[in-house]
């Protein structure tokens, strides 16, 4: 009897991506593409965003209550933040090094570049400047958890869930019905996630078609040197930097990418890490990281471990300086590194975060912020790559932290790939 052929989700999403590019290129400049397809993409993105908060809250409460040890959790938190700081600093330095070696902004004719409108980001930057890093720390403690959930304030949600989980653990037997409830919520939400993912190829098709029809492939040509350098630097960061980190943790970066292939295609095509958060958390648990480590490290990484974004920001800052013929001194570049280290953490969750970070950073070293208007046209193409890097970085972080804590399940990891090879 002939085996029934079934196309995997990764292939379905890839086909949606390719068809979207074709439709967008054929109907370049046609407003009807946005009019008819944007709603499909928006509905898919909204469905994903709808499930993120319940999944984080339920899994984090279950994980923390299972640990029930404030000291152990504090140690994990400190190790996680130290790890994130080291990795993101390495990403910034690689970006600066790549931009200084290859000079992507040298000889760019600004007269032939189209300018985008950066006013919306400038407004957000002003709001950020008034608050800054100190305000971010304060906003970790919510005055109203329902409001924090509504606004998607990830750090406030994590803070509340950790405290609540510790509370459930502290009351012992009386906390068991609460744990049973959240266990049911988590299982139900993962079922909802898998159901929503069946619509991913349609959502990806719509989002990519709108992007290509709006900006066109032509927008890439004048800035192709920047785009190629960003993609090459990100590939180097994943396979060399994260590859070495993975090797030290006795994990294969190639195996990890293979496990995440569906999530990476989806994150790349939607430019959103949120779309894959639930599935990435589940897969990292399956690979041998404990639930409490996964549910703490990955959501925290979405605010503090944006490797792809910080790498891009350092390249973009030097690119704009080179475009204007500004030669940055070593001191100015060190200032740039330090400013990026703080601002990239301080405004996590702000829409267009990479642009906002750049706007609030460029002024610190005397680079004209107007230069950002020239790269706005290809920002979506670059955003797709940095989102995929962020997903790999945060997924690996959960496994590294599990290994560092001495709680990585090697048998589970080995069995996962053994079962995959048999399937």
Give structural notes.
The model has no long low-confidence stretch (mean pLDDT 84). This protein has helices at residues 9-26, 31-67, 70-102, 119-139, 145-151, 154-170, 176-196, 200-215, 224-248, 253-259, 261-270, 277-286, 291-304, 307-323, 330-346, 353-362, 372-375, 379-404, 410-422. Helices cover 76% and strands 0% of the residues. The longest helix is centred in the N-terminal third of the chain and has 37 residues, at 31-67. With 423 residues, it is mainly alpha-helical. The protein has one domain (9-422): Proton glutamate symport protein (Orthogonal Bundle). Helix 12 (277-286) runs parallel beside helix 18. It is globular.
List its salient traits.
Proton glutamate symport protein
Please specify the SSE layout and strand pairing.
Elements: H1 9-26, H2 31-67, H3 70-102, H4 119-139, H5 145-151, H6 154-170, H7 176-196, H8 200-215, H9 224-248, H10 253-259, H11 261-270, H12 277-286, H13 291-304, H14 307-323, H15 330-346, H16 353-362, H17 372-375, H18 379-404, H19 410-422
Helix pairs in contact: 1-8, 1-11, 2-6, 2-7, 2-8, 2-13, 3-9, 3-13, 3-14, 3-15, 4-15, 4-16, 6-13, 9-14, 9-18, 11-18, 12-13, 12-18, 13-18, 14-15, 14-16, 14-18, 15-16
């Amino acid at each position: 009897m002939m085996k029934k052929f079934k196309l995997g989700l990764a292939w379905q999403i890839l086909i949606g991506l390719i068809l979207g590019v074709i439709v967008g290129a054929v109907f370049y400049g046609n407003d009807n593409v946005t009019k008819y397809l944007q709603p499909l993409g928006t509905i898919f993105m909204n469905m994903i965003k709808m499930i993120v908060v319940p999944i984080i809250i339920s899994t984090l409460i279950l994980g923390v209550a299972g640990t029930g040890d404030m000291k152990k959790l504090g140690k994990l938190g400190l190790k996680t933040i130290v790890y994130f700081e080291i990795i993101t600093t390495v990403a910034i330095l690689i970006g600066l090094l790549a931009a200084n070696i290859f000079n992507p902004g040298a000889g760019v004719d600004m007269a032939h570049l189209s300018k985008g409108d950066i006013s919306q980001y400038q407004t957000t930057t002003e709001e950020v400047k008034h608050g800054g890093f100190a305000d971010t720390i304060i906003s970790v403690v919510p005055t109203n958890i329902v409001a924090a959930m509504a606004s998607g304030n990830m750090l406030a949600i994590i803070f509340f869930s950790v405290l609540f989980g510790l509370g459930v653990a502290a009351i012992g037997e009386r906390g068991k019905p609460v744990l049973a409830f959240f266990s049911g919520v988590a299982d139900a939400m993962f079922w909802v996630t898998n159901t929503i993912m069946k619509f991913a190829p349609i959502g990806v098709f719509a989002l990519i078609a709108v992007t290509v029809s709006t900006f066109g492939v032509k927008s890439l040509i004048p800035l192709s040197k920047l785009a190629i350098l960003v993609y090459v630097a990100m590939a180097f960061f994943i396979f060399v930097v994260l590859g070495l980190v993975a090797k030290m943790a006795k994990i294969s970066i190639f195996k990890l990418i293979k496990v995440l292939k569906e999530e990476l295609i989806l994150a790349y095509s939607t430019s959103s890490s949120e779309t894959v958060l639930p599935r990435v958390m589940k897969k990292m648990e399956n690979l041998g990281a404990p639930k409490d480590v996964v549910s703490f490290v990955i959501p925290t990484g979405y605010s503090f471990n944006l490797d792809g974004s910080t790498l891009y920001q350092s390249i973009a800052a030097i690119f704009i300086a080179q475009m204007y013929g500004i030669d940055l001194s070593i001191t100015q570049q060190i200032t740039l590194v330090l400013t990026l280290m703080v601002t990239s953490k301080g405004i996590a969750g702000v829409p267009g975060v990479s642009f906002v970070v750049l706007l609030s950073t460029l002024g610190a070293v005397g680079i004209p912020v107007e230069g950002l208007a020239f790269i706005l046209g290809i920002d979506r193409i670059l955003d797709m790559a940095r989102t995929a890097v962020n997903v790999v970085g945060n997924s690996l972080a959960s496994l590294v932290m599990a290994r560092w804590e001495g709680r990585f399940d090697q048998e589970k990891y080995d069995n996962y790939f053994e079962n995959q090879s048999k399937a």
